[in-house]
Amino acid sequence: MSDQEKPSANTLYPLKPNYKGKTKGFFAWLHHDHILEWSHNVRERTVYVQENKPNDEMKTRAEHMIAIPDELIPKYSVEALQKWKEAHHKWDEALQKREEADQKWKEARQKWKEALQKLEKADQKWDEADQKREEADQKREEARHKWDEALQKREEARHKWDEALQKREEADQKFSHNPKLRKFLKANTPYSWDETNQTLIYE
User: Can you list the domains of the chain with their CATH numbers?
Assistant: First the structure.
């Protein structure tokens, strides 16, 4: 086959054969009822679609699932996505701290139980065991306090993550109506899109 006869590389349609385009970024119609979405790995979605979606949907999905060129992405979408990633990272960190605090609280509670058990068994060493129980109880309360603080921080981080996610989705929705994006989609897909019901029309 000569160079002129070689087929052009598939850099736009992840569901079509020999896809060589980006795997992370903005894509159209990863799901039938959503024009624009960001994916950290589009291959995960294509594998799921190929293994789980009806065969009579595949032609429409393959023609519509398309990578959005980076030059079309507006600044507000990029900024909203970045803020969402930062909020998600902070939420992960807060969750990790809460889990660490939870583990320390469990350890302190276990020690408190052990001290209490010794107290119940050792009548002759009551004062000594009671002192240890009080110390263990104090440590348990301190650990619980730290756990509560970690939980509060996790909830605050989750709230910020939710806000960032909402802003990202709003930015994506705004970008979905971008004239340049619609022009690109209409030029590169059959554009079987039901605007009223927000879903693909399967042929």
Answer: 3-72+178-200 (no CATH), 75-176 (1.20.120)
Residue 1 pLDDT more than 80?
Answer: no
Helices 55-64 and 42-52 cross at an angle (nearest 10°) of 160
Rounded CA-CA distance 148/18 in Å is 52
Do the beta carbons of residue 87 and residue 154 sit within 8 Å?
A: no
The answer to whether the beta carbons of residues 76 and 176 sit under 8 Å apart is no
Non-local (6+) Cβ contacts of 149 within 8 A are 101
Q: Each residue of 45-72: pLDDT tens digit?
A: 999 999 999 999 999 999 999 999 999 9
Name the pTM for this structure: 0.64
What lies within 8 Å, CB to CB, of 22 at 6+ separation is 11, 42, 67
